[in-house]
Amino acid sequence: MFISCVAYALVSTSMLKEVLITYHYYDDYTYYNTIVDTKKQFSECDYRDYYSPAPPLYYNVAHLASEIVGMDAQRLRWMNVVISLLMMFALFLTLRRSNLTSAQNLEKAIIFSLSPYIFGGFFILINDNLANFLLYISIWMALIASDDKGMKGNILIVGSAIAAGLTILTRQNYIWIYPVLVCIYWVRGRERQDVVLAVISLVITAFPLLYLFYIWKGMVPPSHQYHHQAMWPNIAGITLALSLLAFYGIVLYGQLCLNKLKLGSVYGWKTIIGGKNILHYVVSVIVVTSLIAVEPLHRINLGTDGYFMNVMSKLPSVAGTPLPIWALSIVGGWIITKWILDKNYLPLSIIVFFIISATFMKQNFQKYYDYAILSTIMIDSTVNSRRIGIIGLFGMLFISVAYFLYVANSGG
To answer: Residue 50: helix, strand or coil by DSSP?
Structure first.
């Protein structure tokens, strides 16, 4: 971890002088203006409307940081480097609840941080990595609490709820963490009164965001509601989530699949597509076909800078949806079906509740999907006893390098 921190610090020294041309790099200006505005109105705490569609916690943290380092944008970007390194450490702590060694968990945390949207968040003023840091702290506390039935466990339940409340005060679309935490306690055998304590704690910590919803009369400040708040469920977002689940699963754990196939062994192929798996695929085909029939992917509001759909949209399509999306969505549906049958509830709850929340987002920026889906794959207990492997490492590196070269050449 120390070596990776030094490496990121060295990279940061050269990258923070100007806005890094990366995903949503123009948000750096919006966030900086919001920080300045927050500093001006801090004593009044008037959050009825402001520059950003996100809740105010990040801006208050940045305001406090500006009291130390000043309002210089370059110095404030260092705050995001520190927050992002803390996020990596929080993910490392969460993964330690699995059967992997510390070195393997560190490998996963570093590979996660190399994904384009996570890595880009290191070097610009944006709140995503703070939200992820708080998210992982909340899950980490909940996992420990679910194994400790005493007073320490109850304290951690409350602590996890507080971290979840701070998470949604950073990004309101992370509200899916609330039912996930309840599922963790329920599935992992906490007593009923402990689950009740968790629900009460979560409800109390949700009040600040609910108050903001009340004064905004919506889920974002009034001046942003037209662009960010969906008026009806976004069905195409489900297809996008399923296809990204399969895509990252193949990139990160394709090596395990190759090993399982035993290249040429009939038995190996049966473990992937034979037996009961055929029925899982049939169910997935029916579900995916129904989703695409209701809302083809060409009708989705993808926002900007989603490299996955930028590539896919250039490929042949059927029923308004690129052919690779059809295949990947079916595989994604199969993964979820397998999690249900294997009772693998933690990744299942994350992906299901995230997808539900995503249907109410009007702007389907890929970064929203990547955070949740990569977290789901990293935490998946069916693969957490194995390393990602060299294919997964270089796969993620290739995606990141290719993406940043594309953005640099296209001017963002």
So the answer is: coil
Q: Could you say which DSSP state residue 71 is in?
A: S
Across the strands, what pairs with 317?
A: 322
b/e string for 162-176 if b means 16 or more Cβ within 10 A? bbbbbbbbbbbbbbb
Beta bridge partners of 321: 318
The DSSP element (H or E) to which 27 belongs, if any, is: helix 27-41
The whole-angstrom separation of Cα 163 and Cα 134 is 6
User: pTM, whole model, 2 decimals?
Assistant: 0.85
* CA 21 from centroid of its chain's CA atoms: 21
pLDDT top residue among 339 and 409: 339
| Phi, psi angles (nearest 5°) of residue 151 | -65, -40
Q: Which residues contact 60 (CB under 8 A, 6 or more apart)?
A: 38, 42
17-37 residue pLDDT tens: 555 555 666 677 778 777 777
Q: Is 409 exposed, middle or buried (0-12, 13-18, 19+ CB in 10 A)?
A: exposed
Give me the count of residues in the chain.
Answer: 412
**Buried b vs exposed e over 353-378: b needs ≥16 C-beta within 10 Å?**
bbbebbbbbbbbbbbbbbbbbbbbbb
Quick check: 74 and 17 in contact, CB under 8 A? yes
Taking CA 100 as the corner, what is the angle to CA 95 and CA 101, rounded to the nearest 5 degrees? 105
Distances (CA, A) of 369 to 2, 213, 376: 29, 23, 11
Lowest mean pLDDT among 30-44, 144-158, 161-175: 30-44
pLDDT at 271 over 70: no
Q: Based on the number of CB atoms within 10 Å of its own CB, is 320 exposed (0-12), middle (13-18) or buried (19 or more)?
A: middle
- Tally helices (H) and strands (E) across the chain: 19, 2
What residues have CB less than 8 Å from 197, skipping those under 6 apart? 154, 157, 158
